[in-house]
């Protein structure tokens, strides 16, 4: 038990930063998706020191409550890191519907668009997952309209964006009208396809976010960042045929 606490990245004096587990994760690498198994960084001798000592030697085994606490601390560390486990998330996050995804507020996105994070972000990609008639009726400036999975594959995976040199980040922010279904679903799709293209844990796009409240909430607070400065809902009565057609294509 004493050895585990000394090597835990969440306890002062431990090895800096958690080491990702081997193997392929499920979905968005959320610790809620399953208990993690983890190997401590360091020399073989250091790792061997964590093995149980037989014949009654060494410290007494930890209680189940203590082991669970250690596991929870390690899982929390993983959730705070981006998808390739290289660094913590840059943007402040808020609670969202899906605990396996990272949500940002409309105010944080407005700060990104205003250059507040320009010293750290080399490029930000805003993916608008709404249907084209919604996008044409008003969208966030600079956003790309990718309503279907094949659009995401063609735009982001077949021709992946290369991060800028100098260590600046490439971040991708997804949204739809409310960011409840289409945006989160497309974000998960990109992560799953990105994982399948690489040796774990490498990724083209390790830092993904969801705009909480979607375009509707962002437009209500920051219409000056939208063009045209308008909002066309998905269920607009003038576009019922387009809605039916795109819903069919999305299945």
UniProtKB/TrEMBL annotation:
Residues 120-227 form the Rhodanese domain. One of its GO terms (biological process) is positive regulation of G2/M transition of mitotic cell cycle. Residues 1-64 are annotated as: Disordered. It is an enzyme of class 3 (hydrolase). Residues 1-13 have a biased composition (Low complexity). It comes from the Eukaryota. Its EC number is 3.1.3.48. It holds the Pfam family Rhodanese. InterPro entries: MPI_Phosphatase, Rhodanese-like_dom, Rhodanese-like_dom_sf. Keywords: Cell cycle, Cell division, Hydrolase, Mitosis, Protein phosphatase. It catalyses: O-phospho-L-tyrosyl-[protein] + H2O = L-tyrosyl-[protein] + phosphate. GO terms for cellular component: cytoplasm; nucleus. GO terms for molecular function: protein tyrosine phosphatase activity. Tyrosine protein phosphatase which functions as a dosage-dependent inducer of mitotic progression. Belongs to the MPI phosphatase family. This is M-phase inducer phosphatase.
